[in-house]
Automatic annotation (TrEMBL):
This is Phosphoribosylaminoimidazole-succinocarboxamide synthase. One of its GO terms (molecular function) is ATP binding. SUPFAM superfamilies: SAICAR synthase-like. The gene is purC. Its EC number is 6.3.2.6. It comes from Candidatus Doudnabacteria bacterium CG10_big_fil_rev_8_21_14_0_10_42_18. It holds the Pfam family SAICAR_synt.
Length: 321
């Protein structure tokens, strides 16, 4: 899909849903979740959040996130079962209802990042012992780690807190046996992701996984997997040369829209935000489409005629959801 088609459909976005007779509705950052007795109807909207609030609506983003997740779930189902029961619409996953494990399993393949919790920022401050692993002196920013590492955080509605394996066991977040299983599976998923991404000309830098237990107590991968919202990707072909020259890697960039808001308002405190420039919204949509096509090898296709919520309602009805 070219940029002019996106621009013509700039207002074709799913901001929220009001689907009838699907159960209690819970609103997340990006998804509207309808809760039923034994399953969840997860509808990905086009909401784009930053600064703890919605800053824009990006055409086709919800569909892309859903379809990338679905593609990756299929690539990894031999490692662990996932929650997907059905995908009756490009924006919808019907998922098995699970008891959520209160941890986000963050896996990193490179020493990188600029946030307060990032490996590089803490390494620069002199930290070498990260609880579950130790890093040697003399590492450079964006250097590949010998092996992927786990930096789990608590899963909370407020702020996620980094935790060590020792704290996880001592605070009885999960049993030791389950922690071992979670660790092994998270690393296996990440290695599979890196292997497949490399064939697509990409580096899977870091990501996060969420898990739950189904009715039978079986460990299940839930939420999303290896999407551009839960993961960071760099371009593979230019990485080494840029690393050797102390340059930042080329990467899938969503930051430009965030920076525009920082320059044009106080996004944390202003009661209302200015509208994001249409050309920037179209550019971000185009980048989501490009990474979808690069990862899956499939051309992005969508219905540009039927209103999105009408299409979802029809597809759910046709699939007896």
């Amino acid at each position: 899909m070219n940029k002019s088609t996106i621009e013509q459909n700039i207002n074709r976005v799913l901001k929220s849903t009001g689907l009838k007779n699907l159960g209690e509705k819970k609103v997340g950052k990006v998804r509207d979740i309808y809760i039923q007795k034994d399953k969840l109807i997860l509808v990905s909207t086009d909401r784009h959040s930053s600064f703890d609030r919605i800053i824009a609506h990006i055409p086709f983003k919800g569909q892309i996130l859903t379809q990338i997740s679905r593609w990756w779930f299929k690539q990894t189902e031999d490692i662990i079962q996932n929650h997907v029961l059905d995908m009756p619409d490009p924006n919808v996953i019907v998922g098995k209802k699970c008891k959520v494990i209160p941890l986000e399993m963050v896996v990193r393949g490179y020493i990188s990042g600029v946030t307060g919790t990032s490996l590089w920022m803490n390494y620069q401050k002199g930290q070498r012992d990260f609880g579950g692993f130790t890093l040697p002196d003399g590492m450079k920013k964006n250097q590949k780690l010998d092996e992927p590492v786990l930096t789990p955080t608590t899963k909370s509605d407020e702020h996620d807190r980094p935790v060590t394996p020792k704290e996880i066991i001592n605070e009885k977040m999960v049993e030791p046996e389950l922690w071992e299983k979670l660790s092994k599976i998270a690393i296996a998923l990440f290695k599979r992701g890196q292997e497949i991404a490399a064939k697509k000309g990409l580096i899977l830098v870091d990501t996060k996984y969420e898990f739950g237990l189904d009715d039978g107590g079986n460990l299940t991968l839930i939420d999303e997997i290896h999407t551009p919202d839960s993961s960071r990707y760099w371009k593979l072909d230019s990485y080494q040369a840029r690393f050797d020259d102390d340059k930042e890697p080329e990467y899938f960039d969503k930051e430009f829209l965030r920076l525009w808001f920082k320059e044009n308002c106080d996004p944390y405190n202003d009661p209302t935000l200015p509208e994001a420039p249409a050309d920037m919204v179209a550019e971000l949509s185009s980048r989501y489409i490009q990474i979808y096509e690069q990862i899956t090898g499939q051309k992005f296709e969508t219905d540009l005629e039927t209103p999105i919520e009408e299409r979802i309602t029809k597809n759910l009805k046709n699939n007896k959801v």
